[in-house]
Specification:
Blueprint: E1 6-10, H1 16-25, E2 29-33, H2 37-40, E3 49-50, H3 54-58, E4 63-66, H4 71-81, E5 90-93, H5 98-112, E6 115-118, E7 121-122, H6 125-130, E8 133-138, H7 144-154, E9 155-162, H8 167-196, H9 200-207, H10 215-226, H11 235-252, H12 257-274
Parallel strand pairs: 1-2, 1-4, 2-3, 4-5, 5-6, 8-9
Antiparallel strand pairs: 7-8
Helix pairs in contact: 4-5, 8-10, 8-11, 8-12, 11-12
Length: about 300
């Protein structure tokens, strides 16, 4: 019987922790590291070994999965892990790093002798917990078999966008531009309803079952109505992603006016104290002077 795939998960926040838990459930040999160790320690109950440093986490690992805040944080962590890395190990880079971040990470993989797979994911906390993320991947054909047990544990399916790093990141930026636009559209519609004294349920009833209705609208509208902003994807992270989208557009000669306005909404919401709340808290950016509608 062959040994289970050994995986090091670097970054155990909102997304990384449930991904690591699913890897444990799949019977893989999992080691985890997080800058704030307390966020990684609960994973010991799931069967993961909690490492004190990135180097300790990756020692001898077949696959290294990074799920950190951004490109610079990822580069810093992987450099710190360098002494423990096995030459030829597969690096599944799942952080949304943008084009600029990727331009640092792919060369770093070559420098360290790693097989680089550009593998951002689509989905938030709930799909991550259920192992139902959509993985967007780009990497060499020979890496796919070794990465397969990890990809199968964290996602419902993997879309291979090509072999060259960057193809998956570009697709992720396009997908995220849509996700963020729908989030802001929901938040603004709910804010306008509250501002005009319209019952938000009347709005939801009006679009129910039609081409303008969608499950995502219901989820984010529910969060806003209940004022339950437990983060599935935090405002601060969403602002970061919006700015990556804008930068990619500028590089391609494409104006991203909605993304730019959305980044500003996230900035205002964060300034009002909602940076660590779910991105549906973009709602509060519609009330920058009062912090919320009258009577809220």
């Amino acid at each position: 019987m062959s040994e289970p795939t050994s995986v090091a998960v670097l970054g155990t926040g909102i997304m990384g922790a449930p991904m690591a838990r699913n890897l444990c459930s799949a019977g893989l040999d999992v080691r985890v590291w997080n800058r704030t160790r307390a966020k990684a320690e609960p994973l010991a109950e799931a069967g993961a070994r909690v490492a004190g440093s990135p180097g300790e986490a990756v020692e001898g690992a077949d696959v290294v999965l990074t799920m950190l805040h951004d490109g610079p944080a990822t580069a810093e962590t992987v450099r710190a892990a360098a002494p423990g890395l096995r030459s030829g190990a597969v690096w599944l880079q799942c952080t949304t790093a943008g084009l600029e971040g990727l331009a640092q990470l792919a060369p770093l993989a070559r420098e360290l002798g790693l097989t680089f797979v550009d593998a951002p994911v689509l989905g938030t906390r709930a799909p991550a917990e259920a192992g139902q993320l959509l993985v967007l991947a780009a990497g060499p054909e020979h890496a796919r078999a070794e990465a397969a047990p990890v990809l199968e544990a964290i996602g419902s399916r993997t879309v291979w966008a090509g072999e060259e790093p960057g193809a998956a990141t570009r697709l992720k930026l396009v997908c995220n531009s849509w996700v963020l636009a729908v989030t802001h559209g929901t938040a603004e519609a709910m804010a306008l309803a509250d501002g005009l004294g319209v019952d938000p349920q009347d709005f939801l009833d009006a679009v129910e079952g039609g081409s303008l209705d969608m499950g995502y609208l219901r989820i984010k509208a529910g969060a806003i109505r209940s004022r339950d902003f437990t983060p599935s994807f935090a405002v601060g992270t969403a602002e970061k992603d919006a700015r990556l989208i804008i930068a990619a557009g500028e590089e391609a000669g494409v104006r991203m006016d909605v993304a730019a306005a959305g980044a500003e909404r996230f900035r205002r919401a964060a300034e009002l104290g909602h940076a660590d709340e779910d991105m549906a808290a973009s709602y509060y950016a519609s009330f920058p002077e009062s912090g919320g509608p009258a009577g809220s």
